[in-house]
Design a protein that fits this description.
This protein is of the alpha/beta class and about 260 residues long. The protein has 10 helices and 9 strands. The structure holds S-adenosylmethionine.
């Protein structure tokens, strides 16, 4: 690895990739290779690793969003589409308002997006859904084009969080709402020993023997530890322009949902 003074001279500062320090310019490529390698097994691994809990966490996010007819959703780091599909499945179709909804799954990883496209077809979602290949830091989307912007288990992977949060604020309409569902490093002390063992031993083992990629799952564990605690994330959201920020934790602090408005 190049030393930091050399990096400074070249204007290529370092950042964290899990517990490693890497040149910032290499971070997105390294993250991309993680998801490229796990895309096909991503959904199975999610169930296995979380014991199915990720489904409850995502449903809690959707319940908080309370999807309504006509809502425009942009799901950043949308991956294989879980949050978007739940959003569409939970749209309240009971009212007479037939305004068409619009859902956009945005992700920089082509392999993840391809899985999302196949799943969308399998689920019969053809109209009102689109797929955009782009990172959170540079969303090729119009200003104020969403009522709801979600990022689920994605913000941890974003190389430049300041730019990513600013972009997600920009694409929200006035009165629109941002939601971030993410693992949190602030786990309840009583759970810590168990959580540490699970993170350090079980997850990498599952990564190696089930997903065939130990490194990818070590990256997962390490990136969670590096992610800001709820208070720090609130400060970053405020700096990006979000208002009336709230957060809820679940499963003893293992995950948190942060929400903020664009006013
Ligand atoms: C753990 S998956 C989450 C997928 C999905 N949102 C879910 O909850 O199941 C993380 C996703 O973040 C994407 N990602 C990585 N770097 C990103 C970036 N800079 N901007 C947006 N998404 C990114 C990856 O390609 C991957 O699909």
């Amino acid at each position: 690895m190049a030393n930091s003074s050399k990096n400074d001279v070249e204007g290529d500062v370092e950042t964290n990739f899990g517990f490693r320090r890497v040149p910032k310019s290499e971070h997105a490529g390294l993250v991309s290779s993680v998801f490229e390698s796990v895309a096909d097994r991503y959904d199975v691994m999610n169930d296995l690793m979380s014991g199915g809990l990720h489904r409850l966490w995502k449903q809690a996010l959707i319940d908080w969003i309370n999807p309504q007819p006509g809502m425009r959703l942009i799901d950043v780091a949308g991956g294989t589409g879980d949050v978007t599909f739940r959003f569409l499945e939970n749209l309240d179709n009971s009212s007479d308002d037939n305004t068409a909804h619009q859902a956009t799954i945005c992700d920089p990883n082509n392999a993840m997006l391809k899985v999302a496209q196949t799943r969308a077809l399998d689920k019969g979602f053809v109209r009102g859904i689109e797929f955009v290949e782009a990172p959170a830091e540079e969303l090729p989307l119009e200003n104020r084009s969403a009522d709801v912007c979600t990022i689920s288990f994605g913000l941890r992977n974003v190389t430049d969080r300041v730019a990513g949060l600013a972009e997600m604020h920009r694409i929200l309409d006035f009165g629109g709402r941002f939601f971030c569902l993410e693992f949190s490093p602030a786990v309840a002390p009583i759970l810590e020993p168990l959580y540490e063992t699970y993170s350090n031993r079980v997850l990498p083992w599952l990564g190696e023997h089930v997903a065939g990629d130990r490194e990818a799952y070590e990256y997962l564990v390490e990136s969670i530890r590096r992610f800001p605690e709820p208070g720090a994330l609130i400060t970053e959201m405020e700096a990006a322009g979000f208002s009336k920020i709230q957060h809820r934790t679940m499963s003893g602090g293992i995950v948190a949902i942060h929400s903020g408005w664009r006013l």
